[in-house]
Records
---
Amino acid sequence: MEICEMKRYLIGVITFVLVLVNALQVIAIVTPLGLLRFIPIPILQRQILRINEKFGEMYLYFNSRIQDLMHKPNYEVFGEEKLKRDIWQFTTINHLSWADIFLFLYFTNFKQSVPRIFMKSQLWWLPLTWTANLGLAMPFVVRRSKEEIKKNPELVKTDKESTIRACRTYQIMPTNVAGFIEGTRIDKEKYVNSKSKFKNLMPPKIGGMGYTLEVMPYIDHLTDVTLVYKSDKRHFWNFLCGDMNEASVTINTYKIPEELRGVDYSNNDELRLKLKTFLEEVWAKKDEIIEKEKKRYEIDSVF
């Protein structure tokens, strides 16, 4: 028993070191290249983005190969043929664990463009987020408290204009923005408190996606990725140790109605309801997929 636990511990440590080294390598390459992106020559900017996109794909590729080497994963994917590169899309994933991003990218890398996320401006000093901003044009977004907005309502307009300027680069080439529409990782307590009408998901929150569709109206596809792990372990250390090496990934794509793009949702209850209805229809199908996978894996719950 002790030998098995020691082996598991070593797998976790070695996986962590390999993932860290892989990240440091891409930071060292992409950061200096990203500085060239600020030269105001559109052709050069496009080329730098494309070059760094390739380095980003190689980084994700080697992460997947580390999983193959260390974890011998038994992953299954359904709907992989629906993935597309040359479109503007928003990709959403049900959030079960810190490992979700590794599982999601195991199958979508090379088949989608490297996913972008809106990063909190407070995290600008972290090497990985700084590199993502410089090299891949991932924008920093200022998150204001209700107290700050109440004190100075003009901040909302100013911050939105800053985000739109930061996202102009995305009009140059097809872009994939990724996010967790549930807003947080699901667990039993959060699920109960959410009063969800879905069996395996918290209700979709429209704020993040609505904001994205407002500042990036050229995004016209939603790619929905549904993850199910056979194991009930969810910590990142469990992933590093290979405890979560059996899972399924199901992919579906949807056309985003034109009326939901390029509009301000903040004070429009009618449009908020339409976006909520659209996402809840996607969530209903997603819930059915999870139910099916639960039966196949013979598990009672995904959280």
Note: Strands lie at 74-78, 89-93, 119-120, 140-141, 176-179, 221-229, 246-255.
---
Amino acid sequence: MHFSPGSPGRVFVNKVQRHYDEIADIYDDRYGGRRGRSYHQHISDHVMSVLPKGGFLLDVGCGTGLFVKRYIREGGQAVGLDISPRMVIYGRQRCPESGFCVGTADVLPFQDETFDALASLLAFSYVPDPEAMLAESYRVLKPGGRIAICTLSRTVFTSIVPVIYQVGEKVGLKKVGVGDFGERYYTNTEIAGLLDDAGFTDISVGRCSFAHLNLTDPIFTLARKVEPIIEERLPYLAYNVCAAGKKPGSPGIPAGVYRD
């Protein structure tokens, strides 16, 4: 849906865009250190495990192209879309062989049945109209295409995050994601319901990321060691929710085959 000028939805979209334009130059610093690399690798592994390899991917909320690069490295082709023009510039620098464009998730500038796979890492919580985003995702996926989303989950830990980020915005802290954006934290049931309502089948939902990159050492190292146990036995403590689904129909390519 398109938001009218001055509407709450438009104000929200503009605020998120300004924030990520402002922090684009430090975004990669967040994932460049040991904790950041480990954290992003972990969620990328979860997303990659449910997507067809060697396909044509759309990364919604692509940031500076970190996951686009990962998908290409594993034999696929990819296009990135982000709300922030400056993030798109960095994405083009990281993956000059791929296409990047500025846009919003609720109106994807692509033809029907274009992609074999669609991913969204750490962006879905900022989408003001998730139903529209998933309807558009369904539209641009080929029959048999797969979607994978990793986003913020609702837990006892994340319940206090919005307050911390609101305070951070008031004191002018320049840090990725810090601000009052009205982001949504999803339960497994909520995100599964959204995928089901959009028409996706073979829906799977799980939790990941107990070792969040904002933890300091030695706490991060300890959290990383117990992370597999937490995800398997105490998933409600994990920071992110990962959901996947399939658009009904036969896939355009088998998994693991490069798309010409």
Note: Residues 8-246 form a domain with the Rossmann fold fold (CATH 3.40.50.150).
